[in-house]
From TrEMBL, chain A:
Residues 1-66 are annotated as: Disordered. Keywords: DNA-directed RNA polymerase, Nucleus, Transcription. The keyword RNA-binding does not apply. This is DNA-directed RNA polymerase RBP11-like dimerisation domain-containing protein.
From TrEMBL, chain B:
It is found in: Nucleus. GO terms for biological process: transcription by RNA polymerase II. Belongs to the archaeal Rpo3/eukaryotic RPB3 RNA polymerase subunit family. The keyword Transcription applies. This is DNA-directed RNA polymerase II subunit RPB3. InterPro entries: DNA-dir_RNA_pol_insert (IPR011262), DNA-dir_RNA_pol_RpoA/D/Rpb3 (IPR011263), RBP11-like (IPR036603), RNAP_Rpo3/Rpb3/RPAC1 (IPR022842), RNApol_insert_sf (IPR036643), Rpo3/RPB3_RNA_Pol_subunit (IPR050518). The keyword Ligase does not apply. Residues 301-338 are annotated as: Disordered. Gene3D superfamilies: DNA-directed RNA polymerase, insert domain (2.170.120.12), RNA polymerase, RBP11-like subunit (3.30.1360.10). Residues 27-271 form the DNA-directed RNA polymerase RpoA/D/Rpb3-type domain. It comes from the Eukaryota. Keywords: DNA-directed RNA polymerase, Nucleus, Transcription.
Length: 160, 338
């Protein structure tokens, strides 16, 4: 409990502390007072909006990362991993309009997968990504059909 | 893929080929060739961890006088393979509208056994009986694939001991818990002669004599004596051995695996198509971004040093030394001081 008390008093001092303010935001102490003030200000107006955004965030699994341009973009996929990443990377790289494609899982304990696509002029990274997804789908179709064929052949061969 | 076939290797232009070498009720062995290792591995991973099946998730023990602890038995119940045929019609419990569980998202099973003879009594998975409303009569029944159709042994009871419990089986995937894995094991093998040197074989004197050849070694050309290493070679033939735990037939595991992969892709394509409208959250190129490399966050050229040359320029001439955060907590940050 005494800890919590000192925390509350701190932000006043921290505000005048130039050195701390210039630290990266991730290294700055969280000030709880600030947050409570924010909440008071947009009490009711914020609530409805927040709900909407939250819902949208839940379904949105692909995000364009900041700093992307039409022909050179990074995407962030939620809840995807090597299963999709590697196959997708390979197929996108097969596209002759694509200059570069790579994927990474930035941290193993976050269920996130990043894909970087850089294309030549004439197509966009988003189009290349979409084409890549469709191509993997087509590949799945082919393998699925071939497997069913092979199974039928095997069953026919075994029974005859 | 409608790419110019000239760009691709000749073999790849033919498209993938599947050949089944062995298949029965517990396993299917097949070869996938003219495919890429990335895709083959995706297929392996998806069959291993992302095919929905059904397994016991909640256990309510009302009587347990056996020698095993409640939580120990509960864990064993979870690992009992249950028939997952028709699991598609079952909902995930978290997506169901019901409160907790209902017949649309779960199957209830009852185990009640008491040893009344004078010999120890084994309790098998066959003694586990589904009850209550069910979505169909197959899904959730214990797998009895042994000759005596007993299923797996759960525990043994001494004379006079009793076990009574109720289980709730739910749909899930092996990514969450291995009890939902449809496959007991998936063999995945390529390059039996290790021509690509992806494997570094340990040996006492000679790896060739000490390591037994793979079953697939005769399927592929052995390396010639003194053959130079082919730097352009890539794996091309993949040997799968899909063995089921009993909850799904082995060939269904393969087809389901591909289906799950397709659903994953379809979901993403759908989402991308939706985003095309541009709702501001996505598809915006000039959204918030981290500071450009080489400029300080406040527009000043990073921090300056007392040595006068602008700080972010090293004596080597290049613009080294800036951090993405602009001013650092150390030294003279310009913006706040002046």
């Amino acid at each position: 409990m005494p800890r919590a008390k000192t925390r509350k008093e701190e932000p006043v001092e921290a505000g005048s502390d130039t050195v701390m303010e210039e630290a990266p935001t991730s290294h700055q102490p969280e000030s709880r007072d600030d947050m409570s003030v924010d909440q008071d200000e947009n009490d009711e107006a914020g609530e409805a909006e927040e709900d909407e955004i939250e819902e949208e965030e839940e379904v949105q699994r692909v995000r364009l990362l900041p700093g992307s341009t039409p022909t050179a973009a990074s995407f962030e996929f939620l809840n995807e991993g090597h299963t999709l990443g590697n196959a997708l990377r390979y197929i996108i790289m097969k596209n002759p309009d694509v200059e570069f494609c790579a994927y990474a899982i930035p941290h193993p304990s976050e269920a996130k997968m990043n894909v970087r696509i850089q294309t030549f002029e004439g197509t966009t990274a988003i189009e290349a990504l979409e084409k890549g997804l469709r191509d993997v789908q087509d590949l799945c179709d082919v393998v699925s059909d071939k497997f069913i064929d092979a199974r039928e052949k095997f069953v026919a061969g075994a029974s005859s | 893929m409608d790419y110019d076939p000239m760009v691709m290797d000749d073999a790849e232009a033919l498209g993938p080929v599947v050949k089944i070498s062995q298949a029965d009720s517990v396993r299917v062995k097949y070869e996938l060739s003219n495919a890429d290792i990335a895709f083959a591995n995706s297929l392996r991973r998806v069959m291993l961890a992302e095919i929905p099946t059904i397994a016991i998730d909640l256990v309510e023990i009302s009587e347990n006088s056996s020698v095993l602890a409640d939580e120990f038995i509960a864990h064993r119940m979870g690992l009992i393979p249950l028939n997952a045929e028709g699991v598609e019609s079952l909902l995930y419990a978290r997506e169901c509208d019901c409160d907790g569980c209902c017949e649309h998202c779960s199957v209830k099973l009852l185990l009640h056994a008491k040893c009344e003879g004078d010999e120890n009594m084994p309790v098998f998975a066959r003694d586990l009986v589904p009850f209550g409303d069910r979505i169909n009569q197959v899904v959730g029944t214990p797998v009895l694939s042994d000759a005596l159709r007993q299923g797996s042994l759960i525990l043994k009871l001494r004379p006079g001991q009793e076990i009574k419990l109720e289980c709730i089986a739910k749909k899930g995937i092996a990514k969450e818990h291995a009890k939902w894995a449809p496959s007991a094991a998936i063999g995945f093998e390529y390059d039996p002669h290790n021509k690509l040197r992806h494997i570094d074989l340990w040996f006492e004197t000679d790896a060739k004599t000490e390591w037994p050849p793979s079953d697939y070694a005769e399927w592929e050309e052995p390396p010639q004596e003194g053959e130079p290493f082919d730097y352009d070679a890539v794996p091309n033939r993949f040997y799968f051995n899909v063995e089921t735990a009993g909850n799904l037939p082995p060939d269904t595991i393969v087809s389901e695996g591909i289906k799950v992969l397709q659903q994953k892709l379809a979901g993403l394509i759908h989402e991308l198509a939706e985003d095309e409208g541009g709702d501001g959250m996505n598809g915006e190129y000039n959204g918030p971004r981290s500071p450009e490399y080489g400029t300080g966050a406040d527009g000043f050229g990073g921090y300056t040093t007392p040595f006068g040359n602008g700080g972010n320029q090293s004596s080597w001439g290049g613009a080294g030394g800036t951090t993405p955060y602009g001013t650092t907590p150390y030294g003279a940050g310009q913006s706040q001081w002046s």
